[in-house]
Write a structure and sequence with these properties.
Number of strands: 17
Distance between the termini: 6 Å
Structural class: alpha+beta
Largest sheet: 8 strands, mixed
Radius of gyration: 21 Å
CATH superfamily: Amidase signature (AS) domain
CATH architecture: Alpha-Beta Complex
CATH topology: Amidase signature (AS) enzymes
CATH class: Alpha Beta
Number of domains: 1
């Protein structure tokens, strides 16, 4: 572990980098060249960036950004930033494969809404970031682009499904990145790579097109970065009302620098959920790292005490399982119906579709009732606490060649995603939740902790995360 070499502009946080570009202390072309050099040096090992565009074309676009800046035309805080879009979302002119051979390399005709917004802020899309097939599973590998390897140890998993984004951030290939999260896909890879991943409140970052929006309420796009400040700025760029997304939130996000994050968290009450349920297995060392992070919170003036989420574990899991199966089955059913394409889909995705065939309307109704009970249990906690916290993952980064962990602390996992159960109640409740790093285990591998707040309290969660970040210092560390 070490600090990234200060001679490189890529060592700067995105906010500092933005200031240097605005003041013409660093040209957009220099930034692009440094980015391409970093990708050339590290991506062959880690495989975080895929579908990389031609370097000469990217340098020409960066030069055009410099010319606009010379004329006093600054697009926004991301002016000249190299950005790669997660390969579950569209970026015009680039393939959207979803990590699957079954979809073909469809070339996107237009940008996803949040990509449009990043471009309006000045970003240059350089390629895509790798993801598991269809984003299923918190381990980033697929038959289209291959395996993405952890930034701290290439023999280990990068997590997922935003694994490519997390590794690219940790290694300085990108200043900030988009991710998405249903089953911890922003939180888990951030924890595995010692960066920040923020799952916003339901509707904060609207998805367009959104034909299935009234059902598709478990997953959401969100920001990732090396610092909380950068994540807050990217959230403000990605978020905002759009009439095409009927469940989008319309409240405006203020300047993330408007308040002193250290001052505003003193005296706040934090509920420690531990493993959430007493029988939820955790790999040894994870709880201890999180409890050390609780001491940091107490040192900042927070009041921390243990608490319990009053929802039975199996009620939460059954709701999660059935709602997810409905969504995955609905999305992938047409591919599954074609035998030639079905054979190209990974077994875990086929299992989701096959399980969806047996679902009844009554089961789905009961799943939504159970989901509401999870939300209400959190609401009751937030009558006593300002925030609740829990580990981000149940295991440390595991062997990259495994498909998924089959056991934790001697307990067998009965599905391919049961090992990420600890993130599911936050997803079901639609809460804003941020992964913050809590240090490194005896194995030298990173781990993180989830900080969650009430629905729509996104900036409050980011304020505590930013104050904790300043007190702990973990995000200053970079991979060797």
């Amino acid at each position: 572990m070490r600090l990234m070499a200060l001679s490189s502009p890529l060592a700067l946080g995105a906010t500092a980098l933005s200031g240097q570009v605005a003041r013409k202390q660093l040209s957009c072309r220099e930034l692009m060249q440094a980015t391409l050099d970093r990708i050339s040096a590290l991506n062959p090992v880690h495989n975080a960036i895929v579908a990389l565009r031609d370097g000469d074309a990217l340098l020409a676009e960066a030069r055009a950004c410099d010319e606009r800046l010379a004329r006093g035309e600054r697009a926004g805080w991301m002016h000249g930033f190299p950005i790669a879009v997660k390969d579950l979302s569209d970026a015009a002119g680039l393939p959207t494969t979803l990590g699957s051979l079954a979809t073909g390399k469809r070339i996107a005709g237009e940008d996803a809404l949040f990509v449009q917004r990043m471009k309006r802020a000045g970003a240059i899309v350089i390629g895509k970031t790798n993801t598991p097939e269809f984003g299923l599973g918190s381990h980033t590998y697929n038959k289209v682009y291959g395996l993405t390897r952890n930034a701290w140890n290439p023999g280990k998993s990068a997590g997922g499904s935003s694994g490519g984004a997390a590794v690219a951030l940790a290694l300085g290939m990108l200043p900030v990145a988009d991710g998405s999260d249903m089953g911890g896909s922003l939180r888990n890879p951030a924890a595995f790579n010692n960066v920040i991943g923020f799952r916003p409140s339901r509707g904060r970052v609207p998805a367009v097109p959104a034909e299935d929006v009234f059902f598709q309420q478990l997953g959401t796009e969100g920001p990732m970065g090396r610092t909380v400040e950068d994540v807050a700025r990217l959230l403000a760029t990605m978020a905002g009302w759009d009439a095409r997304a009927p469940l989008a939130l319309d409240d405006t996000l203020p300047d993330p620098d408007a308040a002193d994050p250290i001052a505003c968290v003193a005296g706040k009450r934090v509920g420690w959920l531990g493993g959430i349920w007493p029988d939820l297995p955790l790999e040894p060392g994870i709880r201890e790292l999180c409890e050390a992070a609780l001491e940091t919170l107490e040192g900042m003036g927070c009041v921390v005490e243990a608490c319990t989420l009053d929802v039975p574990r199996e009620r939460n899991w059954t709701a999660w399982l059935r709602l997810r199966q409905m969504l995955v089955g609905g999305k992938l059913g047409a591919l599954y119906a074609q035998p030639a394409l079905r054979e190209q889909i990974k077994p875990e995705a086929r299992w989701e579709v096959e399980e969806s065939f047996a679902l009844t309307a009554a089961q789905l109704y009961q799943a939504t009732v159970a989901r509401s009970s999870v939300y209400q249990a959190f609401r009751r906690l937030f009558e006593r606490y300002d925030y609740v916290v829990a580990p981000t993952a149940q295991v440390f980064p595991f062997d990259a060649q495994l498909h998924w962990p089959t056991e934790i602390a001697g307990v067998a996992m009965d599905t391919y995603h049961r090992w990420m159960e600890i993130v599911t109640p936050f997803t079901l409740a639609g809460l804003p939740v941020c992964n913050v790093p809590v240090g490194f285990g005896a194995n030298g591998l990173p781990m993180g902790m989830q900080i969650a707040g009430p629905a729509r309290a996104d900036l409050s969660v980011l304020a505590l995360a930013r104050a904790y970040e300043a007190a702990s210092g973990w995000t200053q560390l970079r991979p060797p």
